[in-house]
Predict the 3D structure of the following.
Amino acid sequence: MPRIINGRHFQWQLLEQVGKGDAGEVLRVKSQPEGLMGLMKRPVQNASGGTILRQAAQIENEGHILASLNGLDASRNGLLVHTPILLDQSIPGTSQTASLFIVSEEVPGIAISNLLKQRLQEDVSLSHVLILRVLSGLFLLLERVHARGIAWNDVKMEHIFWDETNGKLSFIDWGNGLFLSAQPPTNGKDPAWLDYQQFIGEGNLLLNQIAPELIAELDWPANAAQLTKEDLTQLQLRTEYLLSSLSMRVTDYQVLFHKQVQSVYNLDALNTLLELKNSLEALGVTIDKPAVLEAVRHLALGYAQKQDFSALEKLILLLRQYMPEDFGDVWKVTEYILKLPNAHENSFLTDLLPSVLFADWAGALWMLEGIRGQVDNSSQLNMLKSQLRKAAHIPSVYALPLYDQLVPLRDEAHLQLIHRHALHNENDALTPELERFSGQLDALLANWHELGDGEILGDKLLTLRELFRLPAVSLQNLPRELPKALNLLLSKLREFFSAWSEGELEMCRQTLRELFLLEPSLNYLQSIDNEISALQSWMDKLFSGPKPGETLTHFAAQLNANKPRVAALLSQPGWLTNLYALVNILQHATDIEAVRAQAQQENWPIAWIDYGYITIEVPKELGATIKLNGAQAGALQGFHKALQLNQDLTSVLQAVRTTLPEFYVLYQALAQAFESIYSTLPLQPKTLELSSFPQQDQTQLQEAMAVLTALENWKDAIASTDALDIPAFPEKIRHWQIIQEAQTAQQLWQEQLLPALQAIRHRKWASLELPSTSQLPEKFVQSCAYLSKFASQWQRISERGIYPELTRELIFLDDEAQEFFFKSWQQLEQTQNGAVRWLVVTHQTLFSSVNQALLQISRHLRELARALDVINQADLAGSRLARTSAADTMFSLAQLTALIERRDEPSVRLQLWQEQYNQLLKQNNWQAFRQTVQDLDALHPLLPWASELVSRDIDIFTAFSHQKW
């Protein structure tokens, strides 16, 4: 058969045969090279000549009809109908031959007949809405194709395809179709009547199969013999109405169902949900059963946790009543548990039921074994265990536990030995083998339920496998399934040890539960699980690291002392060996930096090793016993000299690390204490005990400690008071560079910097004329100079009034003062003197308040300048903008007065201006306003604006009735 066939428009590659019958064969094809998919219909190639002629004529006729329909698409009330598109035909000259073919599109969906078979097999009803869609779709299709002069003449459910995704009905197989213009009436009726006869018959058959109750509602006729056109119209209207009504009802039910399934909080809500489910299923609507079962399980879980067992029993009854086909193992076991004698009095049910409800059979059996000691009735427990194993559907080879199969085998071996010994057959070579087999089996079963000394998980099963290879096994009636069960257990053990070797501890614990489900006689599995849990806790502690204040040495020693014994039960994998080695390294470490370098190089799983508070514990006795050699003493001397000179300690610390690695961490901590003495960060102080240091270095260490103590006391004193009587530093440590810097900082702060800041803050501008010997930063001195000039210019307002040039000068002086102040503030925060830096940061609020005050002065000066520009323009005098600017002028002056002038020495003239402005505001008629303007001070900033208003003779109280003065 050729794989490529030429059509009129495309070349078609034959892919596979889809169907074959009396009307020809159908193949799935693909155009080359476009890749267009379609279905090819042609005569059966190996049929007789007459059959080929008949099939070719029918296929050719279908091609003409599809071409005429041209992929008909129609819709009504959301219902879509479609006929296939003709894609291609065989080349001319192939008519009535085996080479004739047509290619049409492959419509999506499933045939109604196939869907019906599928639902019947699943014992699920076809949706009533879908049935009505099919009937309504047929009415619509026949109406449209008849209007185009075509009769289908092959109305069958296998020719109707339903595409649920797109909600579309497609109608195929038009080979029997007729062109109405070419067909004379039959018995006085149009040939199109054949379609309705077939339609009524097919519809009647479909309704009887799926929804016979709809026949009465639709008044569907048994046949079309007596139907008139009006009858068909009425039937169509009834079908479409019922479809619309039923669709809305189904939609309402579905919306209510989805809402109800999410709010099942009690038995009444559950009952409502289950009734809705039944109603939808009665209409043939597929519902989301998993969602229903999940809601039921969630409710059951709540009742179990609250120990409301009576409600749980009622829930079981509801489920059995409404969903008997879904009453599976979960609910059967739950029902079984609730029916146990005194079940409601056993508290362990609260813990057991969640595992059962989630079908975690291995977990449930595991939990059941764990509470064996709490239950008196062991037979009841064994029965429940049997039910759990049955629900888990374990393989048949495990139906009887391995141990229970081995006991009869042992007894049989004993009986055989007694029989053979009674025969006294000296030539019997199998008796010694049988004795060996029996002895080993006795020893194995005697300790079956526990692990002996030196024994690990799996040893017993391997021993049993070796037993089955002994010659004496041939004498035993060995159960056929026993070796198979053993091999499956060994396979599960291999899974366990694979996870163990990879460090997958949770998977190990789950596999132990699965092992116990298969072989519940292995009681020691629970002990192994406890040890794995202990290992997880041990690892969590390791990965969390030591707590602040705990040394690395003590932390690692505690871990080493509390190693889990799980390795003795399972063997020790490489990853666990590495963890133990890591802890050992941490315990005996003497150089934290070396440990950190090793951790980074070997990628240790402990990110906390780089935390700053991690320290190594130096044994106290080491400091008392060590005798320093020349190199060690020199390294310490260099360290103390660098401390005294306040130099960089990196190189001297490296020398200490090289010569005294055991004490490096202590001297590093001392160095960090000096480096962080002026830090404002909340650092965790490290306790330094002199007894831990070398005895020969005690004198210099005591002096260093005294320096630290003196600096801490100095910081506390200078931060808590402004008094000048701060205690002086002891004479013996004044030669330390860091002490000298503190003294310099104290002098600068108390004698120069703080007085200047207080002068600005309290507006004592005359105090800002700093002497030439000032040690303050140059930018701070410049800021004070600009502020002094600013204060002088401000005084001129009382003498000459305020005018634009003066305002601009004040803005310039304040901006310069603020800029230099801010830069000096930054400069002081970055100075080399750590004590000065600390003082500035500690008193940051003081610096910030001064800077903020200067910024506020600048802002109000700019507002004043803008307001003066407006009120000094005569053409704007009568405007609302001018009146607003007048208010802004006086408000800005008031704010500036509060920021610049001392409260006990206010400017008399500025106070007068405010009082006169208030008098203006109090006037409520034009004459009084004119008189008040005449009384204004000659330098009043509002005088030009008010005089302009008076000169224009504008009555501002009546001229603008909609505005308010």
